[in-house]
Amino acid sequence: MSLTRDELAELVAAATAAGLTVATAESLTGGMLAATIVDIPGASGMLQGGVIAYQNEVKVRALGVPAALLAENGAVDPGVAQAMALGACSVTGARVGLSTTGVAGPEPHQGKDVGHVYIGISVDGRASAHEFHFAGGRAAIRAQATGEALLLLRELVRGHVKGTGEQKL
């Protein structure tokens, strides 16, 4: 599922009004997540920037993902997704980080099936990772990952705006 353009505009406005700045760290989606946000007028009120870290060396150098974690578990891993989200915040100064890592295909990678994806989300130094198994070709998997990342962001922003004190990660 993905957000409509109107829903995405509402998300951008809500995040901006709440003072929630956002950054992305993308491997699987290769910039699609940031580009989708940037397509909405007013995105500059909340989007700080993003890092496309397609190669593991960039994940380590630019985002601070531990090289040992990548060596032991590979890039398609919940810990890597969390570290990428935290790294996006560290690099940009954003409060919220979103990351994507997974296998878009056409072949499995490092023992992970095509469509196996982790989306990381962090807020104020705490991070979590969400596992997904998408179907379809490369474009469909990347689009689904982008859509799910935006849904996770919307959930976090809604929790923050409601002031529940519980920002669901």
UniProtKB/TrEMBL annotation:
Annotated SUPFAM superfamilies: CinA-like (SSF142433)
Superkingdom of the source species: Bacteria
Name used for this protein in its record: CinA family protein
One Pfam family this sequence matches: CinA
Domain CinA C-terminal: 10-156
InterPro entries registered for this protein in UniProt: CinA-like_C (IPR036653), CinA_C (IPR008136)
